[in-house]
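name: query_chain
kind: protein
chains: 1
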Amino acid sequence: MKILLVNNGIIPVTLYGGTERVIWCLGKELVKLGHNVTYLVKEGSFCDFGAVIPIDDHKDIIAQIPDDVDVVHFNFTPLNIQYCKKPYLITIHGNSNDLNESFDLNSVFVSKNHAARYNSTVYVHNGLDWDDYGKPNLSLKRDYFHFLGKAAWRVKNVQGAIDAIIGTKSEKLKVLGGVRFNFKMGLRLTFSSRISFCGIVGGQEKDTLMNKSKGLIFPVRWHEPFGLAIIESLYFGCPVFGTPYGSLPEIVHDQVGYLTNKKEELINAIENADTFSKKQCHDYAAEAFNSKKMAVSYLEKYEKVLSKEPLNSSCPTLKELRENKFLAWEEVRK
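structure:
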């Protein structure tokens, strides 16, 4: 099968870039399974296992689809999708907050919860090529916890992660993906020496930091569509301490983490992080969220659209609009 993966980003990704990381792993796995992969992505991209076509920003994206591909996998919703002559599907990677937005019949979401919030049952969990990460050292001494994500996004609740750590007796936190000073967000509300900010990290530096961590602190205040930070952390033997929103309950079971929107409960769980098995966290991520499983799931969807069968019986739409942008988080100690 000749598959075109389309995204408006640059591959490969070196620092932050969740969608780009996912489609890189997907393409590599599809090639291993015997398929031909081409990327239609931003200029500056390169790939050693598939062809790359740079997007021409002055032309309609639909007009740039080659004639010789069998199926097109969009990773954003392009304008004029109705004019696409090739079988296609669209992975929806983020959240919409528009009740009037109607998604394409061939939309795929990234978790069961993500799909359900848009009146759909069609989803494929993200997976990663764990060979890119190397084997973690699960016997390594671990001295701190970590937060991983865009700290500038308030829904990621880095302040909640900081407060939870400060609420413990002596635990430390490294914030991966943020800085103490941010012109948009202002000064982080702590000067504690127990909190350190590592900025945006990637590659071996990020892997090394996670491999020395006791766990991921992830008290998000929105419905997380999937959360690559979760499975990356689990892979390095880090249990997840987060909130029960979005995809988290379907990804984080009670053997690999603890979920609550009450700060006191999260603090208690963090202080008992040693009760979780690093090996069980690692094995679970490696087996449940690898790129081969993801690729096989997408191949099933490709076959369906090739047979001209829509993935959804009706266009997915947002089920309900949240009145409050931020989901509940108990911020005050009792």
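note: The longest strand covers residues 36-41.
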